[in-house]
Design brief:
This protein has about 220 residues and is of the alpha/beta class. The protein has a single domain, classed as Rossmann fold (3-Layer(aba) Sandwich), CATH 3.40.50.300. Helix content is about 40%, strand content about 25%. It has 8 helices and 8 strands, in the order βββαβααααβαβαββα. A 6-stranded mixed sheet has the order 4-5-6-3-7-8, sandwiched between helices. The two termini are about 35 Å apart.
Length: about 220
């Protein structure tokens, strides 16, 4: 099993955000977490990451980039813990050729190879989101967990990025707001409402009409 949560709960400031969460994700599954804003998706993403931090590559909801640094350095951060402190310090000033090539190859997968040395803060919102995805791809851990990882992209671009995630990660758990993308790129849909799981079904058994009451604004 990649993830096992049993009767999990979470609260912030005395307010219950999640309660009674039973969720098992097997290795190799591609799961979409859906529901209205405030349903608890981001909190559930946090619980999943906390359970297996050594196996998770995370795409946070905010791109969480270091804006003054180059795109290269932001993506390279995905593997900081796999290099010595000395190597990382050297990379900040004069990156090794092998590291540059590896990062450039990952950026090419999300259509940003030409932005390798651009400052992250100079990129558009969609480009910053793709850099965040590239950092998770470069991280290379077997489970990729994303909190709205393609929300700033159009559907066609989002589909390409989701396909890249699936190509290199054994297990995907993604909070998504686009029903069409969720149905096309995951094999299981888990819907949250008011902090509880109200639907958990194979994607092939669902359609937009079945899901619309859960994700559309009230």
């Amino acid at each position: 099993m990649a993830v096992v949560l049993e009767n999990a709960s979470a609260a912030y400031g005395g307010r219950t955000v999640l309660s009674g969460i039973d969720l098992t994700v097997r290795a190799g599954e591609r799961v979409a977490l859906m529901g209205r804003s405030g349903a608890g998706k981001s909190t559930l993403i946090g619980l999943i990451q906390a359970q297996a931090p050594d196996r998770v590559a995370l795409v946070p909801q905010a791109a969480a980039l270091v804006r003054p640094l180059s795109v290269f350095h932001n993506v390279y951060m995905g593997r900081l813990d796999r290099h010595s402190t000395l190597h990382n310090l050297r990379c900040l000033v004069r990156p090794a050729r092998a590291d540059v090539a590896a990062v450039e190859a990952v950026l090419a997968r999300v259509g940003l190879a030409d932005k390798l040395w651009a400052k992250a803060g100079e990129l558009s919102g969609g480009q910053q989101q793709r850099v965040s995805v590239a950092r998770a791809l470069y991280n290379g851990r077997p489970m990729l967990v994303g909190d709205e990882p393609v929300s700033a992209l159009d559907r066609q671009q989002g589909a390409r990025v989701l396909a890249e995630m699936a190509r290199s990660h054994e297990t995907l758990i993604l909070a998504l707001h686009d029903v069409t993308l969720a149905l096309a790129h995951t094999d299981r849909i888990v819907v949250l409402k008011a902090g509880r799981i109200v639907l958990d079904a194979p994607a092939e058994t669902l359609d937009p009409a079945r899901l619309s009451p859960y994700y559309e604004a009230a």
